[in-house]
Amino acid sequence: MSHTSMDPTKMGIGRSIAVLTSGGDAQGMNAAVRATVRVGIYTGAKVYFVHEGYQGLVDGGDNIKLATWESVSMMLQLGGTVIGSARCMDFRAREGRMKAALNLVKLGITNLCVIGGDGSLTGANQFRKEWATLLVDLVKAGKITDDEARKSCHLNIVGMVGSIDNDFCGTDMTIGTDSALHRIIEVVDAITTTAQSHQRTFILEVMGRHCGYLALVTALACGADWVFIPEMPPDEGWEGHLCRRLADQRARGSRLNVIIVAEGAMDRAGNPISSEDIKKLVEKNLGFDTRTTVLGHVQRGGTPSAFDRILGSRMGVEAVMALLEATPETPACVVSLSGNQAVRLPLMECVQVTKDVTTAMAEKRWEDAIKLRGKSFENNWNTYKMLAHINPPDTKELFDFVLAINIGAPCAGMNAAVRSAVRIGIIQGHNMLAVHDGFEGLAQGKVFLPSEYIEEISLTIAKFNIHSLVIIGGFEAYMGGLELVQGRDKYEELCIPMVVIPATVSNNVPGSDFSIGADTALNTITSTCDRIKQSAAGTKRRVFIIETAGGYCGYLATMAGLAAGADAAYIYEDKFGIRDLEMNVEHLVQKMKTDVKRGLILRNENCNANYTTDFIFALYSEEGKGIFDCRKNVLGHMQQGGTPTPFDRNFGTKMGSKAVLWITEKLKEVYRHGRIFANTPDSACVLGMKKRALTFQPLAELKEQTDFVHRIPKTSWWLKLRPIMKILAKYNISLDTSEHAHMEHVIKKRVSMPAPLMKKACPPTKHEEEE
């Protein structure tokens, strides 16, 4: 699909777009609506709200209203959908769709953006296919003129998937899923403390009638003893296995058991397995004090997570571009993210693969059902099984000691990576060692990097017979790994496999698009910004200037700016001067003349040595005299604290697991003549997420990609998102449309193979993915 080089601010002139939300609500839908409206207006198009979903489309009248820039203000932090959603029987009948077509034609709307689940999107596609015949019938009935029919001869459809279940194949992560996981993990954390107090077993039932994604990721994130999902029912005799598992955990000293159940869980015969059934089984066979909690609609509620806001915003931008670039030959598409990349996928191919999962489950092809869900779902399942259900071997490997070490500042999710690395290491037959106090603990000297104490470190490695290193941390960990590699020439003890797992709120480690801990920090900043903005609700004309962490890396400031709806975010990577500051002040002066009388400015702590937070605060205060007043906040160390988000727990768990599995294979490769000797570049790597895969990149090769002075990578993928933040804040800047996604395909060309062997060629199903 070729992209136009047309000025994006003129692409929508003379065009009209309608946006509706349909089916079950999901947190983040409002972000998608806001972005669709604002980017539509930015392109010169008219944008209409359709209230109450398809019912509003059928009923017309006041249900279809022209949207303005201000009408989508203060929506980002709200859950659900402010334009309403409704189940609509009328739209299922041709007569209802004819009424909907009439309402659109009369307003000149030929572009429809639908945010909903697979049923809603299938309905939209049917509407599009019938469009020409609906117009013919409306002309015959005398309800529209030939001229009106000619002007509205083609309907473009773009879908965004809003569903907390993450049950739509082909998309990356559906809007609302991450927020639902936040709600579930909050409850699990609360339940864990009371369960430990009383030595109880807790059974938690989560949503997922046909998809076990929420249950599976929850089980991974909280280390549950057992999980029941519809895609993979437990084996025959599971009752005895479950009871043995729970009893073993208690015998090892655990004071609680946690069991996660998807609402659609069933046994191999297709009989439902409810939380009450499991409770009766545990009480009868083990006599454990057991409680059940059914979460229900609390999972749909609450404020959307930072990820869902960014996902909705990015998808809204992509949806508008897809609509305005569509031709009559372009198939209806869904827009989503895969890794950190925007993708456009043919709508009906995605619907077909989603139906294939249901068919596989109905035909009891359980392995196929897991594979059809996508590579990430399959890897989540395999990681969970390994961590929860595989017992350590009776015999040890030849390579006895694998060392896990945390380096630098702490961040949320480090513990998940350590736990996973240790457990997988023990399962692989290794003796796992943990170093307290980072490299200083390893050297027994008071240093943060190993260069000065390299000899002591090599002696410690020899003394404890350490055969490999897992280094978990931020830029210090990366630098430390490089220094250990450089020390190999002098100290043979350092010729062992090493892997660095990036874990830092700053997200500044070369070789990875995401670091463990950054998502938790981003959510902390976003929720703080929400509260600060809310505090201005009763005090009009106020601008807040907030300083974020990150060293010289502007990731947190930029992404929080997108998630919280900031007016500007100052960062080191995007240079700015006094003219830019002047323009930002003038922008806020103009904003105060609208209905939205508040401003939010983010500043990365090291963005500029002279334009400090105090300077910017003083400048805004002086220039805004009589128009707005200013307040400033320095968030500080609160960005490093807090309980890890579901993403950081899951990401840390999978990174720890993959690192140790890689080390196990690497040790076998480098074991020669009764000893370990690893000195090739690929024996010391950073494990990171790049675009769509978790990859191992040699530390030595990453040196060229590093700005060592400022401790950041030389290039960063997220810088391409900054124009979106500025456009959504009403800056008249250019958007590079050449970067927009091409249409991809979900289903491989069908060759002559039996149905059970058909595999899905979907992009990954989480914003981090394994190979």
TrEMBL record:
<keyword id="KW-0479">Metal-binding</keyword>
<dbReference type="GO" id="GO:0006002">
    <property type="term" value="P:fructose 6-phosphate metabolic process"/>
</dbReference>
<keyword id="KW-0324">Glycolysis</keyword>
<protein>
    <recommendedName>
        <fullName>ATP-dependent 6-phosphofructokinase</fullName>
        <ecNumber>2.7.1.11</ecNumber>
    </recommendedName>
</protein>
<feature type="binding site">
    <location>
        <position position="118"/>
    </location>
    <ligand>
        <name>Mg(2+)</name>
    </ligand>
</feature>
<feature type="domain" description="Phosphofructokinase">
    <location>
        <begin position="405"/>
        <end position="447"/>
    </location>
</feature>
<feature type="binding site">
    <location>
        <position position="291"/>
    </location>
    <ligand>
        <name>substrate</name>
    </ligand>
</feature>
<feature type="binding site" description="in other chain">
    <location>
        <begin position="163"/>
        <end position="165"/>
    </location>
    <ligand>
        <name>substrate</name>
    </ligand>
</feature>
<keyword id="KW-0597">Phosphoprotein</keyword>
<feature type="domain" description="Phosphofructokinase">
    <location>
        <begin position="17"/>
        <end position="322"/>
    </location>
</feature>
<feature type="binding site">
    <location>
        <position position="200"/>
    </location>
    <ligand>
        <name>substrate</name>
    </ligand>
</feature>
<feature type="binding site" description="in other chain">
    <location>
        <begin position="504"/>
        <end position="508"/>
    </location>
    <ligand>
        <name>beta-D-fructose 2,6-bisphosphate</name>
    </ligand>
</feature>
<keyword id="KW-0021">Allosteric enzyme</keyword>
<dbReference type="InterPro" id="IPR000023">
    <property type="entry name" value="Phosphofructokinase_dom"/>
</dbReference>
<keyword id="KW-0808">Transferase</keyword>
<feature type="binding site">
    <location>
        <position position="24"/>
    </location>
    <ligand>
        <name>ATP</name>
    </ligand>
</feature>
<dbReference type="InterPro" id="IPR015912">
    <property type="entry name" value="Phosphofructokinase_CS"/>
</dbReference>
<dbReference type="GO" id="GO:0005945">
    <property type="term" value="C:6-phosphofructokinase complex"/>
</dbReference>
<dbReference type="GO" id="GO:0030388">
    <property type="term" value="P:fructose 1,6-bisphosphate metabolic process"/>
</dbReference>
<dbReference type="InterPro" id="IPR022953">
    <property type="entry name" value="ATP_PFK"/>
</dbReference>
<comment type="pathway">
    <text>Carbohydrate degradation; glycolysis; D-glyceraldehyde 3-phosphate and glycerone phosphate from D-glucose: step 3/4.</text>
</comment>
<dbReference type="GO" id="GO:0046872">
    <property type="term" value="F:metal ion binding"/>
</dbReference>
<feature type="binding site" description="in other chain">
    <location>
        <begin position="207"/>
        <end position="209"/>
    </location>
    <ligand>
        <name>substrate</name>
    </ligand>
</feature>
<feature type="binding site">
    <location>
        <begin position="87"/>
        <end position="88"/>
    </location>
    <ligand>
        <name>ATP</name>
    </ligand>
</feature>
<feature type="binding site" description="in other chain">
    <location>
        <position position="605"/>
    </location>
    <ligand>
        <name>beta-D-fructose 2,6-bisphosphate</name>
    </ligand>
</feature>
<keyword id="KW-0067">ATP-binding</keyword>
<comment type="function">
    <text>Catalyzes the phosphorylation of D-fructose 6-phosphate to fructose 1,6-bisphosphate by ATP, the first committing step of glycolysis.</text>
</comment>
<dbReference type="InterPro" id="IPR009161">
    <property type="entry name" value="6-Pfructokinase_euk"/>
</dbReference>
<dbReference type="Pfam" id="PF00365">
    <property type="entry name" value="PFK"/>
</dbReference>
<feature type="binding site" description="in other chain">
    <location>
        <begin position="637"/>
        <end position="640"/>
    </location>
    <ligand>
        <name>beta-D-fructose 2,6-bisphosphate</name>
    </ligand>
</feature>
<dbReference type="GO" id="GO:0016020">
    <property type="term" value="C:membrane"/>
</dbReference>
<feature type="region of interest" description="N-terminal catalytic PFK domain 1">
    <location>
        <begin position="1"/>
        <end position="389"/>
    </location>
</feature>
<keyword id="KW-0379">Hydroxylation</keyword>
<feature type="domain" description="Phosphofructokinase">
    <location>
        <begin position="452"/>
        <end position="662"/>
    </location>
</feature>
<dbReference type="GO" id="GO:0003872">
    <property type="term" value="F:6-phosphofructokinase activity"/>
</dbReference>
<dbReference type="GO" id="GO:0048029">
    <property type="term" value="F:monosaccharide binding"/>
</dbReference>
<keyword id="KW-0963">Cytoplasm</keyword>
<feature type="active site" description="Proton acceptor">
    <location>
        <position position="165"/>
    </location>
</feature>
<keyword id="KW-0007">Acetylation</keyword>
<dbReference type="GO" id="GO:0016208">
    <property type="term" value="F:AMP binding"/>
</dbReference>
<comment type="similarity">
    <text>Belongs to the phosphofructokinase type A (PFKA) family. ATP-dependent PFK group I subfamily. Eukaryotic two domain clade "E" sub-subfamily.</text>
</comment>
<feature type="binding site" description="in other chain">
    <location>
        <position position="263"/>
    </location>
    <ligand>
        <name>substrate</name>
    </ligand>
</feature>
